[in-house]
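#help-structures
NK: newbie question, is this the right format to request a structure? protein is Isoprenyl transferase
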Amino acid sequence: MDLLHWCEDIESLEVLTLWPLSKQNLARSREELSQLLGVIVKTVAKISRTQHWRIHYMGDLECLPSDVTDLLLSHSGATSHLGKPVLNLAIAYSGRDEITRAVQRLLARRRAQGATTELASRISAAGISRYLDTAGQPDPDLVIRTSGERRLSDFMPWQTAHSELYFTSAYWPDFSREDLCTALRSFENRERRYGR
């Protein structure tokens, strides 16, 4: 909640994405997963009550217990009338899984439109982008990775192709407003080259 309050002061911020639960985390013990999901649902409820962020989910919510999915969807529904900023919450998320689901949706759409031949030649990067969990949103400008890790860990591999990466040794629970400001200053001092 602190991070969201800090981000409210950033006028140019249109989309913020947080990744509270990977799809791989679903393999944790039933007790641990239940506790994690409880924290996530309570936090999403708090965010929804602020009526500041339009909540959008990334990930495969179908993998979650139906009561959890229902609660999460009710909280996002309560913010659907809001414009920007958008808060993407990656829950039961895997980047590879997202791309797989996007291609499956694209192929299903093409089949429904009657495409039967040369289907593979009709698939494009722009077409896949329209079926990602972030369809219609800009790609991230900045990705902040906490805990000293120097990898993206299957986080938005499609969308982060040209994102600037910032790594900090601060662990997520200890990530402070100063850490955020340091990351933003670093970003502001970079020359964006978009792969050129």
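mod (FA): yep, format's fine, and the tokens are attached above. The chain has three domains: 1-93, 94-137, 139-188.
NK: thank you!
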